[in-house]
Amino acid sequence: MKMKAKAQSPPLPSTPTNRIRHRKRTKSLEVIADVSKMNGGELLLNDENKYKSMWIRTYSSLWMVGYVIMILYLGHLYICATVVVVQILMAAELFHLRRRIHEDKRLPGFWLINWYFFFTAMLYVYGRILRQHLVNTVTSDNFCHKLVNGLIKYHMVICYFLYIAGMMWFILTLKKKMYKYQFGQYAWTHMILIVVFTQSSFTVANIFEGIFWFILPATLIAVNDVAAYLFGFFFGRTPLIKLSPKKTWEGFIGGSVATVVSAFLLANILTQFQWMTCPRMDLSTGWLNCDPGPLFNLDYYPFPKYLPRWFPWKGVSIAPVQWHALCLGLFASIIAPFGGFFASGLKRAFKIKDFGDSIPGHGGFTDRMDCQMVMAIFAYIYFQSFVLPPTNSVEMIVDQIVRSLSLEEQERLYVMLGQIFKQQQFGYP
Question: Of 336, 322, 325, which Cα lies nearest the Cα of 221?
């Protein structure tokens, strides 16, 4: 009777509190399951499909290496064009992360505002970086020289009002009940501009300082990525960080050692190609010939005399730039991987495995450029702080004169310098 009464007793009322708690628990469990599934919980050592994945990554890497060799042969301008294309593809992948189909249907054409701000930022950033190179390119044509000087003079004003026009366009498109989504897109767009253009601007600046300062840092990131993958593939047993479950300490340490050694050797190899060490002062595409300077010249270091006579080598030749390459290698192996960890955290936040699928086995372009972003900025700062001579050279002063003075002012300066030379030559006070 008691059991029957218990069976017929009415169920307890379901309170709103109970329903809310139940939903929260269910949602939390779903998130954990999705993230674990998408990011992979197994090490590469225990992954059954690791060989298939490795061959796909290898084929894609070979295609990318072939393309890089081709654009290196073509020169500075083609490398910069490739950087711009990659930058556009990265922005497209990042814009897509925050896009919602339902909201976009209610806001036709709203996505154009994202790209408007993107190309406005591109005009500003590359205008600031390449303005002197553009002036040097058109010096032979008087009309083009005046036109370019005028555009450079008002470049900041033009970009500012283009940005203001974009902001007004955004405000006029605001729609009721869509404010949160629209302002979220506005903030997301500006974050993308900071991330993408900060990296690309420093990359382009490195290219025009000499292809050496672009290809060495970029290659070190690729070497570290491949070496860490291979060491983790065959020896990885100890997980490194929860954001990237397949990263291991064995891969991290093995990749670091391989990267530092490669940096020292690669710097020596690249110095043999003179055209890689020459800075580009204009936007032409011809081959360069220049004096590499003492930085790229080999210095001989004799071994100690107490070494046995049968030892085959009496000394070693090392270029000063190889010591700088060691610093770049240390950064590429220890600090730059945290750019990849940051990207992994961002992907977990959006519950995605990769930013895109443009490169088989690698994901999207953003997946390949996460560490490159950090490395490009460091390479530029390191070059400006520790490599570039602190004193102003004649070329730098001439560049500043051409950039700052009109043709009439340059002629006046020429006459004044001639008078100074005459006074110094004849001893006039």
Answer: 336
Q: Are 329 and 259 in contact (CB under 8 A)?
A: yes
Which residues, listed in sequence order, are joined to residue 315 by a DSSP beta bridge? 302
Q: Where are the alpha helices (DSSP H) in 173-278?
A: 179-209, 212-235, 249-270, 274-277
What are the distances in angstroms from CA 211 to CA 77, 262, 269, 386? 11, 18, 13, 18
Q: Give the per-residue SS3 of 93-142.
A: HHHHHCCCHHHHHHCCCCHHHHHHHHHHHHHHHHHHHHHHHHHHHCCCCH
Q: How confident is the model at residue 16 (pLDDT cuts 50, 70, 90)?
A: very low
Integer Cα distance of 233 and 248 in angstroms: 9
Residue pointed to by tokens 């922005």: 91
Q: How far apart are CA 165 and CA 167, in angstroms?
A: 5
Phi–psi pair at 363, nearest 5 degrees:
100, -135
- Per-residue pLDDT tens for 67-93? 999 999 898 999 999 999 999 999 999
208 in Cβ contact with 77 (< 8 Å): no
**In 10 A of CB 39, how many CB atoms?**
18
Separation of alpha carbons 61 and 67, rounded Å: 10
pTM for the whole structure: 0.79
φ/ψ region of 204 (left if φ > 0, alpha if ψ in -120 to 50, else beta) reads alpha
Cβ-contact 255, 225 below 8 angstroms: yes
Query: What does the alpha-carbon distance between residue 221 and residue 335 come to, in Å, rounded to a whole number?
Result: 11
Instruction: Look at strands 299-302 and 315-318 and give their pairing.
Output: antiparallel
CB-CB neighbours of 334 under 10 Å: 15
Secondary structure element (H or E) that encloses residue 241, with its range: strand 239-241
Return the DSSP state at 46.
Answer: G
With a CB cutoff of 8 Å and minimum separation 6, the contacts of 107 are 173, 175, 178, 181, 182
For residue 83, count other CB atoms closer than 10 A to its CB: 21
